[in-house]
Amino acid sequence: MLTCLAAICVTGAVAIDGDTVRLDSPGKNLRLRLWGISAPEIREPGGVEASRALAALIDGQTLACDLMDVDRYGRPVVRCATATVADLSCEMVRQGHAKDWPQYSRGAYVAAAEGGCINREGP
Questions:
Q1: Which of 9, 10, 29, 60 is the most buried (most CB within 10 A)?
Q2: Tens digit of pLDDT for each residue in 32-70?
Q3: Membrane-spanning residues where (predicted)?
């Protein structure tokens, strides 16, 4: 079981694409952007597969997320874990569905494509 000590702890998240999740609530749908990675948009090659991969990782899971930043669209940018995945961004890169975005991650997920992640602090 995941002990939620993070800034944001949510259930019922839905994958929008490979790097964004949506939380449905009355009157507002909050979108959270995963920190440090870039995944293809749903209409781009690999986008549907990336969305499905993220959906499989979060399905039925509680997400424990730390707020890292806010993007230009006003979305919270978060680093999230579940009871079974220590870092969703790392796992998406490790599976080949996303790429490290060094402009924001400072290379935190470069090693993920080879099966591991380096532990770096966020912004």
A1: 10
A2: 999 999 999 999 999 999 999 999 999 999 999 999 999
A3: none
Q: Which residue has the tokens 């000590």?
A: 5
* Residue 55 pLDDT: 97
Closest by CA to 18, choosing from 39, 32, 44, is 39
Length of the chain: 123
Sign for the CA dihedral angle at 68, 113, 15, 45 comes to positive
Which parts of the chain are beta strand (E)? 8-10, 14-15, 20-25, 28-34, 37-38, 63-70, 76-81, 99-100
14-15, strands of its sheet edge to edge: 8-10, 63-70, 76-81, 28-34, 20-25, 14-15
Its pTM stands at 0.85
Would you call 82 helix, strand, or coil by DSSP? coil
Q: What number of other Cβ atoms are within 10 A of residue 34's Cβ?
A: 26
Q: Identify the CATH number of the domain defined by range 8-114.
A: 2.40.50.90
